[in-house]
Predict the structure.
Amino acid sequence: MRPSMRASRNPLKVLITWVKRQPPKVKAFLAVVTGMAAIVFLRFIVHDHDNLFVAAEASHAIGISVLIYKLMKERTCAGLSLKSQELTAIFLAVRLYCSYVMEYDIHTLLDSATLVTTLWVIYMIRFKLKSSYMEDKDNFALYYVVVPCALLALAVHPTTSHNIIHRISWAFCVYLEAVSVLPQLRVMQNTKIVEPFTAHYVFALGVARFLSCAHWVLQVVDTGGRLLTALGYGLWPSMVLLSEIVQTFILADFCYYYVKSFFGGHLVLRLPSGVV
């Protein structure tokens, strides 16, 4: 009986259990190694690395669709952060303005659609479903992220030939996007229990952020570093890549618990203290 019992053990569960027992520094190292390995894997299986950006946008769209489905079907916004949606609307509005005056392309249209749906979500939370909004749990002060992002944008921004206001605005939306999910993570940390639709939404954001990060890293590798020069000089190119990496790692811990819960057969995600 013992050999058969050992053979029936799920290797993934064994791996997750082993990782869970490791100290924080080892977990961080394993996360970095796993991320790098995933990027190398994507480099060889995806021939056109621009498709990774399209995949990132698609993942974001799926996440928003899940969110809309939750609001329409369950008629509740419990577990959602209004402040995260407001931060998302701010950086999308600023990025849209910069796109119109600096580089109008297909991404401008995609951002327009995302902004419209985000404003609809804000409207639903503020007015239609206000009674189910957990305002006491959504207690992340927005000035903790908005003010530092604005100051950082003043100090480090693109060195292109565009108007200085446009360049600072572009930097501001890049930095703000990197931390816009923090209020949502705080809500989930405060409640400890995350219902499925909210968990799916945040996981989709995590996947989108990783694919976007992989896109930028592989583009730099493919161009032999020339992409960094095209973005400008000084600290700005490094800050763009750093912002992508920060977004990915902010969501990495949540995605770990999401995958663990999914393979454990649990519909409701329970977060331990200290995830955010």
Observations:
- The longest strand covers residues 193-194.
- The chain has one domain: 48-267.
- The chain has a mean pLDDT of 80.
